[in-house]
Structure prediction request, 514 residues.
Amino acid sequence: MDAKAKRILGAVSVPSFMIGTDFTGAMLLVTPIEQEYSVDITTTQWVLNAYALTLSMGLVAGGRLGDLLGHRRYVLIGLGIFFVASIGCILAPTVSTLIFARAAQGVGSALVWPCILALAATSVEEDERGPAMGILMGSVAAGNVLAPFIAGSLSALGDWRSFFIFNAVFAVLSAVLIFRFIEREKEHATNEAVDISGMAVLAVGVFCLLFGLDIGADNGWFHAGTLALFAGALVFFALFPMVESRVKDPMIPLTMMRNHQFVRTLALNGLPAVVLFLCLLYLPQYMQKVLGWSIFWSSMGMLPLAVVLAAMNLAVGNYYNAIGPRKLMAAGHASLILGCVLMLFLQTSWGYVALVPVMLVVGLGGGLVFGPAGTAAVNALGAKGAGLAGGLSFMFHLGLGAIGIACATAMMFGAAIGKVEAVTASANVTLPTGDLRVLAAGTLKDPAVMSITERYSGQEAEAVMNAVRDSFATGLHAAFWFGLAVAVIGLIISLSLNESKLRTETPEEDTATN
Prediction:
């Protein structure tokens, strides 16, 4: 690899790291965001989902725009959007403004990520492409793993907005490096089109599903608005393949969807993300709301998960062919199942020590699945479809992860409200729906919760406080029942793979074939 290629890889690794930090870092900020804006988890989850939705839906379009008009140009445009959106997150006066700014961050990332993949791939010789992609993916993985510590440390020095100051600084640094070390391309593709219609139909369908899960937890699953949103999601999902069959360059080519092995690998890129995201989202909240830890120490508490996940991501690639993707991913999902089962038996009296085995087995499971799933998706299509396979894999990783969080959060919040209602009713305390929601979503330190508990005394006050203490753990169990079901589905799909169509050919095999 020559010096120029090394400079280009160094330049694109910085925005890769930035994108890696943005989703998992924001997960640690949910509790302080809830407290500042006095909202519950069904609202703050949109700080995560808005980013995941716009990023996952825009990835393919971002790649095609880069092909048509220049990857360097669209990296700089994307970084500009990301920078402005980060400033919007810092200054957001309301949670709605913050959610809108996060959606804009997702748009910026959707332009940046596929274009830096293309810049990295074209900066090296063909035989150096594997290591180059490894460096880039390693930068993203490092961002994923380090993000909770970055968010926790910065929040300890200032508040949760400090993390988005970090975003803005990295966007500027990335733009300077791209501008300085990467030359403007002279040739562009001329025979491609951006599938705006397909992207819009799929995005609206996913939005209807996510918003339906949100208001369903608030208003009931048989409320007219909830049912209308679910019906809308079904309609748009049904329209999507019809739209894709009529456009020139579809977002997801139907020929690929007829490749059953490829479809299975896409699912396996997304399903394990659900369990990992549940841990990244809810375990820090558990440490903060149940154990009473600060945001900084809760970020440090995630260290076992981060270390094991990072180590497995680095090591598992060496065993892809030796052991086989089917066995690796099946073992990974079995480990994720074990992690969910351990969470179902978790008791609040056990303290932090009980979380360590959960984090170890989930980190092990994630490491066994994520790398092989991405490689298997590329191998299912072959070298010619590698770029699109990589983009779709990341799209399913974020998209299914966001949908999973929304489903689990709806189950969690419903179970938490039920627990509060049951505990208070046993003490003959009847609470209005609004108070039930506040108690189910908060902690005893929250001003809104304190204003409710102060109305009572004696046994009634004790019952209300017990309800607050127990509601989060009860909701957590409900969320991990959902995670368990997803992990079981992932195990079944892993075992159904045809390994012979997913192996990476070695140079010796290539020679023998020729």
Summary: Residues 506-514 have pLDDT under 50 and may be disordered. The chain is about 80% helix and 0% strand.
